[in-house]
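User: Structure with thymidine-5'-diphosphate, C-alpha cells only please.
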Amino acid sequence: MITNTKMISFQDHSGELGHLVAIEGNRDVPFEIKRVYYITGVPEHVTRGFHSHRKLEQVLLCLNGEVKIRVKTPQEEETVVLNDPSKGLFIGHMVWREMFDFTPGAVLMVLASEYYIEDDYIRDYGQYSAEANNFFKE
Ligand code: TYD
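Assistant:
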C-alpha cells in the first residue's frame, strides 16, 4: 500500500441471520470518529474526489456494490477496489484520492476524524504537489 494508507479488516459477525460489522472509534479505526457521510447514486463514468486533506484522516467502506479508489502521493499511486463491507481503506494526511467505477447501487460510507472544514481540502493538483512534496520530504 502507498504511504499513509492501509486496509483495515473489521470483525464480521456473520451467520444464517446475515452480517453485522461494528466499528468503534479509537479502537477499530485509529481516530475518534467525528463525522460519518455516505455517497450513493453515483452515475457510471463519474469520478469524484480529486482532492487531498491536510489534517483529516478517513476510513472508506463500500457497504454495497463496488467502487474503486485511486490514492496518490507525488511519488506513488495505487488503485484499491472496495467491495467488502468488512474492509475499510484508511487514508491519512496528504494523500490525493479519486473515487470511480461505482457500480449501480454502490454505497460508499466514510468515517472521518474531523468535522467538515473546507479549508482542510486541497483541490488543486498543482497546490497539492507543492505541499505534498514538502510534507513527504523527510
Ligand atoms: P466533496 O468532499 O467535494 O465530495 P467528493 O470529493 O466526493 O466529490 O463534497 C461535495 C459537497 O458536499 C461539497 O459542496 C461539500 C459538501 N460536504 C459537506 O457539506 N459536508 C461533508 O462532510 C462533506 C464530505 C461534503
